[in-house]
Write a structure and sequence with these properties.
about 120 residues, about 50% strand
Length: about 120
């Protein structure tokens, strides 16, 4: 069993930055594929970024060059650094994980563990 707790959301102006954190407990991070997803009101859940057990990363086209996913395996914390934020980045952001091989970002239903979410609001 894996428990995930996000933090770091907030309200910023366009062009600003935020860093989200996801504290993981249970299975060690070294055995987990982990990702960040977001969902805006009235929209489908969208995969933002993922990191596999080897440290390889994948990003949605909409955030490439602006967002960076990383992890501190000693502390069991997953991060999402978000720069150059845009109003369209406004959403609830969720941390997710699954054991073993990493599903594609569009395969959110294959991530077995989810946090409660943290709200990010970007104003123009």
């Amino acid at each position: 069993q894996v428990q995930l707790v996000e933090s770091g959301g907030g309200s910023v102006q366009a062009g600003g930055s935020l860093r989200l954190s996801c504290a993981a407990s249970g299975d060690p991070m070294s055995s987990l594929c982990m990702g960040w997803f977001r969902q805006a009101p009235g929209k489908e859940r969208e995969g933002v970024a993922k990191i596999n057990t080897g440290g390889g990363t994948t990003y949605a086209d909409s955030v490439k060059g602006r967002f960076t996913i990383s992890q501190d395996k000693r502390k069991n914390i997953l991060y999402l650094r978000m720069n150059s934020l845009k109003p369209e980045d406004t959403a609830m952001y969720y941390c997710a994980a699954t054991l073993g091989a990493c599903p594609l970002l569009r395969q959110s239903d294959r991530y077995n563990y989810w946090g409660q979410g943290t709200q990010v609001t970007v104003s123009s």
